[in-house]
Design goal:
Length: 102
């Protein structure tokens, strides 16, 4: 925006944008080919509950409130944690719920 209003040099702004795009491309390429780098850059899913049992330590360690868990359950049509097979905090910050069989 500053380059468009001439309060910053257009060439420098364009160069900075090009560097950011290049870095993004390099990281995307590297992450798509390396599981270890993907784990470092993007993270992994974290189990918050298994077989209907909520892991309170994991929930608190990852700063997930009980209300966040309840909201995720409601979105999947589940009333209680004991009706789930698993609950995960995904790398993107969303909470996924897998219903128990039956």
């Amino acid at each position: 925006a500053r380059a468009m209003t001439a309060s910053a040099p257009f060439g420098g702004t364009l160069a900075a944008a090009a560097v950011l795009m290049l870095l993004h491309t390099i990281f995307s390429f590297a992450v798509s080919r390396s599981n270890r780098l993907s784990d470092i850059v993007e993270g992994n899913a974290v189990a918050l509950a298994r077989d209907g049992l909520l892991d309170e330590n994991a929930r608190q360690r990852h700063l997930i409130s009980s209300e966040d868990i309840e909201q995720a359950l409601r979105q999947r049509g589940v009333e209680r944690v004991d009706q789930t097979k698993a609950i995960h905090l995904e790398a993107d910050g969303k909470i996924s719920v897998i219903k128990a069989d039956g």
